[in-house]
Amino acid sequence: MILQMFEAHKKLNIELTSYGHCYQQLIYTNFEAGNINKEQYDKHLNVLTELAWWIFKSSKNPNHHDIDVFFIDYEEKFLSSDRIVVLESLIECSLLVNDGIEYSFKYPYIYYFFVAKKIAESYTDDKEVREATEKLLKNLHKEDFASILIFVTHHTKNSWILEKIQACLKDQFNGSYTKIELWKDQDFRKITLTPFTNRASIPFTVFFERIGEASFSRDQLKFIQNFIQKIPELVLEQREVSIERKKKNEYLDAQDDDADTVTLEEDKLSNDILSDINRVFKSMEIAGQIINNRHASLQKLTIIDLA
User: Fold this and answer.
1) Distance between CA atoms of 158 and 83, rounded to whole angstroms?
2) Which residues pair with 103 in a beta bridge?
3) Within the chain, what is the greatest distance between any pair of CA atoms?
4) Which are the contacts of 135, defined by CB distance < 8 A and separation ≥ 6?
5) Would you give the distance in Å from CA 272 to the centre of its chain?
6) CA atoms of 29 and 57, how far apart (whole Å)
7) Using CA atoms, how far apart are residues 188 and 178, in angstroms rounded to an integer?
8) Under a CB-based contact definition with an 8 Å cutoff, are residues 129 and 156 in contact?
9) Higher pLDDT, 121 or 212
10) Confidence band (pLDDT; 50, 70, 90) for 96?
11) What pLDDT does 171 receive?
């Protein structure tokens, strides 16, 4: 619960993605500073795009061996390039860095920019890219995923990305939550949360009784105590530690040698109402940022739907 609260309080640092055009211009400026011939711009951009995608899929920065493997795979799909010259040029341009062990992007947002470029260019033709995009949408509350998605809206004006984001926002609470009686006290009338889904809208009314100025007496604060006592029933499952540890070990054993084990476990553990609430707040930030970035080029109805 503490981690969920911390994550919910942390504001996504996605304002910089408003300047997608500026990042694009800075990349070209760095190419000029690195004395890269303009005829070679496309090649270097493509290498950066494919390398960013490799890092995204692998969840790690490539070492020297990984770079060799990357270029072998790259040259099977694209025209051959002098990998040493290309890498040195990109390092001289301050787009990549090499600490002697690994290669990485010098700035995180340059990495986000090129991952988004790959998604925007390959989504319709590449099943792997579509599956990765679904993963991004399911984890909108993560800063790096949010930044990548907003950069996608910079790289493509096609409607599919906005439609995907809208569908994801509408699907935030796709389950049915049971009725919860929060408190019963003379200060307030009974408040009931009605079961709902994203496919059904059930109108309800909440009535408040007229109350006087708060004196913070023990009787007036009684409803807070009652609510606090309800918290374990609302958000915590009563489970035995030994049984849960055994289940977890069995699950990890079954997923041994699976590269997605950690991700699957995280997804499994985060599938609760607190995560849903957290995800909604982060999604609202992202939707607002997209509207802020593209309000001049989006149609009014599209802006209204997204809002």
Assistant:
1) 33
2) 98
3) 78
4) 145
5) 17
6) 28
7) 21
8) no
9) 121
10) very high
11) 75
The residue to which tokens 């599209």 are assigned: 302
pLDDT 10s digits, 262-271: 454 455 444 5
Q: Partners of 105 in the beta sheet?
A: 96
CA dihedral 28, 31, 36, 41 (to 10 degrees): -40
Backbone angles phi, psi at 183, to 5 degrees: -160, 165
Six token digits for residue 272: 């609760």
For residue 163, give the nearest of 21, 1, 305, 270 by alpha carbon: 305
What backbone phi and psi angles, to 5 degrees, belong to 33? Answer: -65, -30
Amino acid at 245: R
Residue 147 tokens read as 């930044």
User: What secondary structure does DSSP assign to the chain, as a single string?
Assistant: -HHHHHHHHSPP--GGGGGHHHHHHHHHHHHHHTT--GGGHHHHHHHHHHHHHHHHHHTS--BHHHHHHHHHHHHHHS----HHHHHHHHHHTTSEEE-SSBEEESSHHHHHHHHHHHHHHHTTT-HHHHHHHHHHHHTTTSHHHHHHHHHHHHH---HHHHHHHHHHHHTTT-S-PPPEE---BTTB---EEPP-BTTB-----------------TTTTHHHHHHHHHHHHHH-----HHHHHHHHHHHHHHTTT-TTHHHHHHHHHT-SHHHHHHHHHHHHHHHHHHHHHHTTTS-HHHHHHH-
